[in-house]
């Protein structure tokens, strides 16, 4: 009886996976095999192999790498400090709160902050620095995207640090290891699973961003996500847009498989 109930409980889960994961992916793969006129073809994949789309792919991976790198550089020290502070749950809540705000609202907030007459340029003028063109630059795109994704990097690293056995650190100190050696040989290796989870949570969605590239960088930063949006909404070439989406899905799957291969030492 219990097995029957478990199978019944799993039905909504499998229906959800089939309807909202598997079928949409199959539909995208199906559309990728047709050109703008509706004729069956593999030309979309040949077009993707041209320098224009390959350069766009490299650009997408480069910016996703930059965002992930800066998120990790900020998130790891932040998560480490959180584990050693009082009221850590309150601080964690304050870090998570911005994720409850709509992404579009946060993006428009940064447009106001970085605008020609925004608060940032007002501070510059107060110190005698001429107004700077902050919007529609590579810097603004990386900065805003990093800000948006930082909580998703902090959370898994914080959880990994919280699960760390303190006796291992004390044992390292008793054996004469310095703080730097303890971090390098004990703390960091045992929190690699958290770093991997955070990297996946940041790098994969950063590959396919399109709204921030349009609003913050003014399309100076062109990613695969931007190309998908353009093909579906502007050129109406759903086949090419679907082809780029298929390539992104495959790339994301490879990244997830590569990052989830071997468990860290903390397991």
Short structural summary:
This protein is mainly α and 267 residues long. The protein has helices spanning 2-31, 43-48, 51-82, 88-96, 103-114, 119-126, 138-162, 166-174, 179-190, 192-207, 211-215, 224-233, 238-259. Helix 7 (138-162) packs antiparallel against helix 10 and helix 12 (224-233) packs antiparallel against helix 13 (238-259).
List the helices and strands and how they pair.
Layout: H1 2-31, H2 43-48, H3 51-82, H4 88-96, H5 103-114, H6 119-126, H7 138-162, H8 166-174, H9 179-190, H10 192-207, H11 211-215, H12 224-233, H13 238-259
Instruction: Describe the sheet with the most strands.
Output: none
Count, helices: 13
Question: What sort of overall outline do the alpha carbons produce when their principal axes are compared?
Answer: globular
- How many domain regions? 1
Radius of gyration, taken over Cα atoms and rounded to an integer in Å? 23 Å
Could you state the order of secondary-structure elements as H and E?
Answer: HHHHHHHHHHHHH
- pLDDT under 50 segments (min length 5)? none
């Amino acid at each position: 009886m219990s097995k029957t109930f478990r199978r019944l409980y799993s039905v909504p889960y499998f229906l959800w996976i089939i309807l909202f994961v598997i079928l949409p992916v199959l539909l995208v793969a199906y559309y990728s095999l047709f050109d703008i006129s509706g004729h069956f073809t593999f030309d979309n994949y040949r077009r993707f192999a041209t320098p224009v789309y390959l350069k766009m792919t490299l650009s997408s991976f480069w910016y996703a790498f930059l965002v992930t790198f800066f998120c990790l550089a900020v998130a790891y020290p932040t998560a480490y400090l959180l584990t050693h502070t009082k009221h850590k749950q309150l601080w964690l809540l304050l870090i998570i709160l911005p994720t409850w705000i709509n992404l579009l609202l946060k993006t428009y907030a940064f447009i106001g902050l970085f605008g020609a007459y925004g608060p940032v340029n007002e501070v510059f003028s107060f110190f005698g620095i001429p107004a700077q063109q902050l919007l529609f630059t590579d810097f603004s795109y990386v900065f805003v995207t990093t800000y948006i994704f930082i909580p998703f990097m902090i959370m898994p690293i914080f959880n990994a640090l919280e699960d760390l056995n303190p006796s291992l650190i004390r044992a390292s100190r008793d054996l004469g290891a310095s703080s730097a050696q303890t971090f390098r040989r004990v703390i960091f290796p045992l929190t690699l699973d958290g770093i991997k989870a955070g990297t996946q949570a940041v790098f994969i969605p950063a590959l396919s961003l399109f709204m921030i590239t349009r609003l913050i960088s003014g399309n100076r930063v062109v990613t695969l996500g931007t190309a998908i949006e353009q093909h579906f909404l502007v050129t109406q070439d759903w086949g090419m847009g679907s082809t780029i989406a298929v390539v992104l899905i495959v790339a994301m799957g490879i990244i997830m498989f590569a990052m989830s291969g071997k468990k860290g030492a903390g397991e």
